[in-house]
Amino acid sequence: MKYNHAPISLRDGHIFLDGVELADCIKCEIKFTPDVWTGRQLGELTPSSRWLGYSISGTITRRRSSKWLEKKIKEYQKKHETPEMTIQGVMDDKNSDYYKKYGKNIVTCVGVVLTGDLPLTMLDSGGDVLEDSLSFNAKDIL
């Protein structure tokens, strides 16, 4: 475009779980949160800050269309081993200024473990569609 800006459209992307696209995914957010030490020395008016580590977390919201979550839960109940996954997010809005300058934005999370409540069933007299919101932590990003 010559005159208008083209920010990234959040609609143009894909989420993969262990290499398989989550076609029922409607929202994904992955966050990097630094562990920050803050302190001051005698005579300093303002504190210094330093990163000492970090955590990686996120949320996937999806419309339930498969039993993969139930399978992960059953797998844990049977083996008592924490299910570990890989989640990859791809932003590829080819019409955006970002894409034209940098190409695809790809974030791959490894060592992903689901956290929080894992919904098994939901009923609602309002009759809306079923959406699961799944929180996770990741060990690292590639």
The quaternary state of the protein chains shown equals single chain
* Helix-strand makeup class: mainly beta
Cα radius of gyration in angstroms: 20 Å
Categorize the overall geometry. Answer: extended
* Strand and helix order: EEEEHEHEEE
Number of helices: 2
Q: How many β strands by DSSP?
A: 8
Strand content: over 45%
Give the mean pLDDT: 93
Largest sheet: 8 strands, antiparallel
- Indicate the low-confidence ranges by residue numbers: none
Keywords:
single chain, 142 residues, 8-stranded antiparallel sheet, 2 helices, 8 strands
Structure overview:
8% of the residues are buried. A hairpin with a 2-residue loop joins strand 1 and strand 2. The protein is extended, with a radius of gyration of 20 Å. The longest helix has 12 residues, at 68-79. It has helices spanning 68-79, 97-102, and strands spanning 13-17, 20-21, 25-39, 48-63, 85-91, 105-115, 131-138, 140-141. With 142 residues, the protein is mainly beta. It is built from two helices and eight strands; from the N terminus they run E-E-E-E-H-E-H-E-E-E.
Gist of the model:
Helix content is 13%, strand content 46%. The chain contains two helices and eight strands, in the order E-E-E-E-H-E-H-E-E-E.
Which SSEs are present, and which pair or pack?
Elements: E1 13-17, E2 20-21, E3 25-39, E4 48-63, H1 68-79, E5 85-91, H2 97-102, E6 105-115, E7 131-138, E8 140-141
Antiparallel strand pairs: 1-2, 1-5, 3-4, 4-7, 5-6, 6-7, 6-8
